[in-house]
Amino acid sequence: MRARQLLQYIIIATAFAGITDVSCAASNDSVRVMYEADQSERKAQQPDFARMNKNDQDRRARVLKLLQASQLKSAEDYYHAAMIYQHGATLADIRLAYSLINIAVTLQADQLRYQRMRALAWDRMMLQLNRPQWYGSQSINKPGSQLLQLYEVDETAVSDEERKALGLPALAEAKAEIENINAQILKQQAAMPANAMTASQAAPKPVSVSFHRAAGSGHELLAVDHCVAMFWIKLSAMGLPEPLVANLRVAQPRMMVVRRDEKEILSLLDDKTKIANPSTGNEACFFDYVAYTDPDRHLVLDLMLDDKVVPGPTFEVKPYKYFRVKLGQLDADLKGKHVELLQAEKIPADAVQR
Questions:
Q1: DSSP-based three-state secondary structure for 329
Q2: Beta-carbon-side half-sphere exposure of residue 24 (alpha carbons within 13 Å)
Q3: Burial of 10 (C-beta count, 10 Å sphere; 0-12/13-18/19+)
Q4: At residue 140, what are phi and psi to the nearest 5 degrees?
Q5: In this structure, what DSSP letter does residue 343 have?
Q6: How many CB atoms are closer than 10 A to CB 294?
Q7: pLDDT tens-digit series, residues 86-129
Q8: Contacts of 274 (CB under 8 A, 6+ apart)
Q9: Cα dihedral sign, 47-152-60-58
């Protein structure tokens, strides 16, 4: 799938290279019709989400065919295509949306809606990468709740003036709007009869999960990746920093581990030495990861490894390495317990659960 993602970017570059005068480029009616259908479904009073997800998938497939046939000609075409891919579920979808909207902005930089769409695509891509967003456009559910919260924002990246210039609310306004939505949710819940909430609707309770690492275990991780071995050593010493919630994938705080050579890792795995990480260093590996349970109640961690340290703020989205670590079963109600390592493997980006 990584090759397919690369092909998508090549297709975009090829199509873009053929555009010489945007003022003469006629928009593609078929991608406009898909865009209008995309927007119409989202404006419905009671959206059919299952049907909408299926239609979204079909629209993305049709847009990709148009890209392959070099049928996107105008800035508006690329904007419409970007919006369709913006509603995708994977990191590859959002990266492609960001690439498409950048082409639209390049062709018509004076279009505010294109610039605003680029900001939204950037925030959504940061969300997919478990990195702080910049513009404050993305919200997520609070763990174990129907209430919303603003996804983490890097408040040093852009100013409220820059947000306003794009037609986006200031951070304080975005937070206030979320609180208004939460107030409506709480009002509806309060008006609901006590016996009206089913067991499936009841808010699950977060639970802490600890780990067990027997001396001499985890050696097989060296063959997977040295940083993953260090991740397991550190994680087994601290458990999941963020409590796990039933039926939800829970994003965990970013973890830093120090790169070690094989001899040092073996010594740590055999408990001959104890882990002692410095607070920073150029030999660090950084993990973003989510925790969830599979249908057999095994605890699964999907890891995104960034092993390239680049000082200072940057627009660059560096290629990650992706891994899946499968651990022992949890109790039916996900009570915290010691779990053991069962399997670890490298996986493609589109296999990561987010």
A1: strand
A2: 4
A3: exposed
A4: -135, 165
A5: E
A6: 11
A7: 998 788 889 999 999 999 999 999 999 999 999 999 999 998 88
A8: 268
A9: negative
Please list, residue by residue across 118-132, b when 16 or more beta carbons sit within 10 angstroms of its beta carbon and e when fewer do: bbbbbbbbbbbbbbb
Nearest of 134, 218, 136, 148 to residue 178 by alpha carbon: 148
Q: Are 135 and 123 in contact (CB under 8 A)?
A: yes
The answer to whether residues 324 and 293 touch, using CB atoms and an 8 Å cutoff, is no
Look up residue 344 and give its two tokens: 């670890």
| Planar angle of CA 317, 323, 324, nearest 5 degrees | 135
Residue 183 CB neighbour total at 10 angstroms: 11
Confidence at residue 309, expressed as pLDDT on a 0 to 100 scale: 54
pLDDT in tens, 294-339: 888 888 999 888 776 544 444 444 567 889 999 888 887 777 677 8
Question: What is the number of alpha carbons within 13 Å of residue 139 lying toward its C-beta?
Answer: 16
Instruction: Please answer whether residues 63 and 81 qualify as being in contact, where contact means their C-beta atoms are separated by less than 8 angstroms.
Output: yes
φ and ψ at residue 180, rounded to 5 degrees: -65, -45
Distance CA 96, CA 101 (A): 9
Q: What are the structure tokens assigned to 252, written together?
A: 């965990």
What letter does residue 283 receive in the DSSP assignment?
A: T
Distance CA 288, CA 251 (A): 8
Tally the C-alpha atoms within 13 A of residue 283's C-alpha that lie toward its C-beta: 8
Neighbouring CB atoms inside 10 A of 63's CB total 26
Of 339, 346, 345, the residue nearest 217 (C-alpha): 339
In the block, tokens 């986006």 appear at 168
Q: Cα–Cα–Cα angle for 280, 286, 287, nearest 5°? A: 145
Of the candidates 300, 346, 284, 315, the one whose C-alpha atom is nearest the C-alpha of residue 122 is 315
> What are the residues facing 139 on neighbouring strands?
150
Task: Go through the chain and tell me how many residues it has.
Answer: 354
Phi, psi of 27 (to 5 degrees): -70, 155
Written as six digits, the tokens of 255 are 């973890």
User: Which residue blocks in the chain are alpha helix, DSSP H?
Assistant: 2-17, 29-42, 49-68, 75-86, 91-107, 112-128, 160-165, 171-191, 221-224, 226-238, 262-269
